[in-house]
From TrEMBL:
It holds the Pfam family HTH_1. The keyword Transcription applies. It comes from Mesorhizobium huakuii. PROSITE patterns: HTH_LYSR. This is LysR family transcriptional regulator. Residues 5-63 form the HTH lysR-type domain. InterPro entries: LysR_HTH_N (IPR000847), LysR_subst-bd (IPR005119), WH-like_DNA-bd_sf (IPR036388), WH_DNA-bd_sf (IPR036390). Signal peptide: none annotated. The keyword Transcription applies. Belongs to the LysR transcriptional regulatory family. Keywords: DNA-binding, Transcription, Transcription regulation.
Amino acid sequence: MPLRFTLRQLEYFVAVGEAGSITKAAEQVNVSPPSISASIAQLEAEFGVQLFVRKHSHGLSLTAGGRVFLKEAARLLADADALHDIAGDIAEKVRGPLAVGCLLTFAQIVMPTLRAKFERAYPEVRFRQFERNQGQLLEMLQRGEIDAALTYDLELSQDTTFEPLMLVPAYVMLPEGHRFAGKASITTEELADEPMVLLDLPYSREYFLSAFQMRGIRPNIAERTGDIAVMRSMVANGFGYGIANMRPLNTLAPDGKPLVFVPLAGDLRPLTMGVALPNAEHRTQTVQAFIDHCRRFVVEQGVFGSGRVVE
């Protein structure tokens, strides 16, 4: 019996089922809402089942049958993606889908240029990117939602493989004119009474605070934010100092005010930026090509001026 549906239709159906909205799904897969509506209608007509209950005020809800159909459609799409990997390995070509997560604290510095260069080198790869905090990236790796994550070596599980790229020590971020701005380095003892703008993200937060805890010091946390760009602007406007590892490519906060960066002295270990992957017996050519590309990128671009490339 000939198939009268396409993988593209299944992709649109899964996108709507997971998003709960045709509009949101259309944004994710970059097609028009009418195209998605037509695909779902064709699937329902082909299989003779109602997949969604339409609710004007609440979008779409999956029917009981639709939930079963969603699970099987997602499995079928995953199997189809695996065929791309197998075909690429047989043909020794880098091709097919690649989902990459990136730690949101440095995604804006790294990902756009890295991705653009990768896609020019490997035009047959369908690249998707996700910016998340460390906890979310680790969960996405465990659930198989991404193939790799560009991140730090923070709280990695035994189910994760980590390919190191660069050592990145911590630095103190200060407003221009601060009394510590001219120092060669700053200790946590010197920072103890200074107001701190804490980058309040899972695992990152604990890492920064450990610099004080190991010295028996309680930092003076004046402000908290989960957005590193907001932290930079708050520091530049005199709300306190910040601590981070990834240096921006210039010395200006997002609002244009100047910043000063001074190394943090003490025993806080440098973080290692690298590529985290699920443990697997077989690594596809596309994933390996991405790792190799990242290695070349950190060397060629000279990003993160305070870091050191891992050989």
